[in-house]
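Input record, target 12 of the design panel.
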């Protein structure tokens, strides 16, 4: 997944009670199913599932198949090997009393790179519900980075609230005290979607970026909680908060 540009102004069940709570938990360990191929041989197919296996995700040569309570649909999503397992859950995110299938897949992993993407499917017809992108959310953020000697003064404004914090250049691991920085935060190298308390959320890392091409340094996190907009049939940003990990 490509990095976001820098910005300057920027988961159909009838279960209830304990059963429903359990079904909302995430299963990250894969399972195995035996399937007969066209040649009559038996093959093992790897799958990932929600806690009670209402939702199953399996990989194909050119995408994935999602099975929700026996109904299947194919998507062109990719599963990266050698990284964290896909997260699969079954939870009511829209508030209509019916669970949705939620699939979270790693899209990027490496030095200063940690990204995933979330897919939410209607539990009955398996249509995908749109999620407002990080790019769209960040477009409404205002950020500013001012450098005074060894200190970076960082400001960010979201939903009318202003956040201020500072960071010493000499405390950053990948840069030198004499490095100069862009005057706005850089986003895109950390985008982590998650489901918690029946809410879809995403954490977006904010970085200061040296002008000499050295890797950006993480300095803050934009925490976004989504809400479901029934009129738009879309998950849109509801609450936005910016935190400083060093405080």
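The sequence produced for target 12 reads:
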């Amino acid at each position: 997944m490509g990095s976001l540009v820098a910005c300057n102004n920027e988961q159909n069940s009838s279960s209830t009670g304990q059963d429903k709570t359990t079904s909302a938990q995430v299963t990250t360990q894969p399972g195995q199913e035996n399937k007969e191929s066209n040649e009559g041989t038996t093959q093992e197919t790897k799958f990932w599932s929600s806690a009670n296996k209402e939702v199953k995700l399996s990989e194909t040569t050119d995408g994935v198949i999602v099975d929700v309570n026996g109904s299947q649909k194919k998507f062109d999503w990719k599963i990266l090997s050698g990284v964290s397992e896909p997260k699969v859950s079954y939870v009511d995110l829209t508030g209509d009393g019916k669970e949705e299938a939620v699939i979270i897949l790693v899209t990027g992993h490496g030095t200063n790179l940690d990204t995933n993407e979330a897919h939410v499917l209607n539990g009955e017809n398996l249509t995908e519900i749109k999620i407002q992108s990080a790019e769209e959310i960040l477009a409404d953020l205002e950020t500013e980075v001012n450098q005074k000697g060894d200190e970076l003064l960082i400001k960010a404004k979201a939903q009318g609230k202003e956040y201020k914090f500072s960071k010493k250049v000499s405390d950053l691991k990948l840069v030198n005290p004499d490095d100069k920085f862009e005057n706005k935060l850089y986003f895109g190298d950390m985008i982590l979607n998650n489901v918690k308390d029946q809410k879809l959320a995403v954490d977006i890392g904010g970085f200061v970026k040296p002008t000499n091409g050295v890797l950006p340094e993480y300095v803050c996190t934009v925490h976004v909680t989504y809400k479901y907009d029934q009129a738009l049939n879309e998950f849109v940003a509801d609450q936005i908060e910016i935190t400083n990990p060093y405080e």
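Helices lie at 17-23, 134-138.
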